Amino acid sequence: MNKAVCICVPARNEAARLPILLGALAAQTYTGTIHVALCINNSDDESASIAADLATHRGSRLNVRIDGCVLAPDEAHVGTARRRAMHVGSDIVGDRGVLISTDADCRPPDGWIAANLAAMDAGADVVGGRIVLDNLEPVSMAVMSVVTQFDRYWAMVREIEDAIDPVPHDPSPRHGDHTGASLAIGADMYHAIGGVPAIPCGEDRALVTAAVAAGARLVHPLPVWTRVSARTEGRAAGGMATSMAELADTINDGGAPRVAALEHWARRAAWRREERRQKGISAMLAHESRLPPMPKDMALWDVVR
After folding, report:
1. Residue in 213, 175, 181, 168 with CA at minimum distance from that of residue 194
2. Which residue of 7, 31, 144, 232 has the lowest C-beta tally within 10 Å?
3. Cβ-proximal residues to 130 (8 Å cutoff; 6+ apart), any chain
């Protein structure tokens, strides 16, 4: 039986992107009503009217609820907007439903909702989705080459973690993404941890950390993935667009992206294993959040060559 599911989306000035996202949601293989909660905040374009028009034309497939608002300057960020969208979604589906966060510039594949729900049915409490650049949008060959090398690097990191500190409920092969672009969580767990933190950036990672600290089973199944825009001018500080802009600047300047050498990941995996054994997962996560960042002491191509 299909669980009630709501797709929760923060959006600001996304008139060009919302038709793409809503079209992709309408094309899902999931057979139930697809609820969509849009928090359209601080917009001065036609995002709200376009979303409302699309909802009317797809009323038999999508049930779209729009939370149109103007947030105060100190709250006008993605953390507040995602929190509002998720709260609207939880009101729609109730405690037994599933909330799936995504972003307005995403284009999920047809089986995205079904793959998330399959993972939940298999015992997951939180499902992270892998993010890939949208192949319908222009991306330079240089950028794609570096992104491919980053994929290889992160696959190597996952192999190290799985060898030293495997997680039984999140077995290999797996990816490592759990961002707001594709993140499913049971509404009951969402409420239990207090929802999305209303912080300017990193709200998605903070939500996942809180859930895992509370005992949630986080998984990263390969069938769960979504396409994201490669745009370099986004809406959220510190988001995907910022990363793409920084990567493009590095490439244009002839530089090499810097990453942490693999031995740092090996030491961190061993540290997590022992810390968790001695103090529990909540204390381990709290301690890890206070550790200094790993040094980015190697060029990306020196690691993956």
Report:
1. 213
2. 31
3. 175, 177, 182, 220, 222, 224, 225, 226
